[in-house]
Each structure stands twice: as structure tokens, then as C-alpha cells.
């Protein structure tokens, strides 16, 4: 499986940035083919790719399993992560820049990962998740370590309505002195969801930032696979 650069170039990144600014997430629909989703899902049965399985219920995260990939990543995921990074870094530098640090994120993933590794963050920030019937994932943020990239992606690898029911991707924003805002994202097989990792910049009387969380609603039947790709190592 190889990714042509043209696939990234065809994405309307200005629209993605607008979505991130307005609601904290954006869906790139049907970015992966079904065949690519099935090929990625087949990796789940390969112990050569992964660190040991984590059972969510043992850690009170929910019900399901996830597995971190270890380095070297499978070629498709290595290419996906490195080729997409410059686009999301450009968005991050627009939305999270400050007068003191106008370009906080370097232009290449290699440079950003060098900083992660220097800070002792060496675990590849890419994992596959499996939710069986009744599986779910509680509200959380993927923020382990001192260095954090403000955007992440979730690749939806199962077909809603055919392979599973329920299991919607959810987001929640929390701000001081106001009720939390929750949104159902959904997403279907082949979609790539770009979302805020821990906060979404808000603009009004000067930039403000609220806490941003995501989770997965209960799978009512079938099973759901997804792949979480962080641009920082943990």
C-alpha cells in the first residue's frame, strides 16, 4: 500500500482549518478505500507490529482494546503520518501561534519527533483500537509527555450500519463557568477525522482556549475498528 502525494494535495485544507477553528474537528470523507481499511484492519492479528494489548476496562477507560504500533511503523502508516504532517502543522501554526512564538511547530515531522525523543517520548503515537459489542471509550485526551501536537487524526476502519451499530465518535468542549458542549461526529469507513488533541483556540475578545475531549459511544452490535494517529510520540 502506497500513498500518492496527490491524495494529500486534493484535500481542501483551508476548509479543514475553518472547521477546526469553528468546531474543533473536520472530516475528510472517504479518504481511504475500503480495501485499504481492510488491509489496515488485518494488521490487528499481527503481533509483529504492536506493543502488548491494553484492555480498557482494566484501566477504567471503557470496554475494548488498543495496541500501540512500535517502530518501525508499517510503510503505509509511516507515509501517512509524514506526508500529512506539513499540512496539519501549517494549520497548527495559524491557530496556535503567539506573538512570542509565531511558528511553534517545525515544517517536518522528523524535526518534531526529534524534539519528542529528546524529551524522552519514544513510543510511536499510532495505535489501533477495537471495540466489540458493548464496547465504548470514555472522554479522554491523548496527552502523554511534555510535548504535544495540537491536532490528531482518527481513521475509521469499519462500516457503520453494516459491520457495527452505535459506536459514534464524540467530542466535548469544556470552558470555565459554562456547560460542556458535546457533539456527535459519527464518521464512516474510509473517513479521516482531524480533531483537536487537547484544546481548541477560541476567538472573541482575544484568543481563548477550552479543554477538548473525545470518546466513543457504546457499540450496540457488531465490532468497530479505528486507528488513532498522533503527530507526537508519547
From TrEMBL:
PROSITE patterns: FE2OG_OXY. Pfam families: Oxygenase-NA (PF09859). Keywords: Iron, Metal-binding, Oxidoreductase. The keyword Iron applies. Residues 120-234 form the Fe2OG dioxygenase domain. It comes from the Bacteria. Transmembrane segments: none annotated. InterPro entries: DUF2086 (IPR018655), Oxoglu/Fe-dep_dioxygenase_dom (IPR005123). Belongs to the iron/ascorbate-dependent oxidoreductase family. This is Fe2OG dioxygenase domain-containing protein.
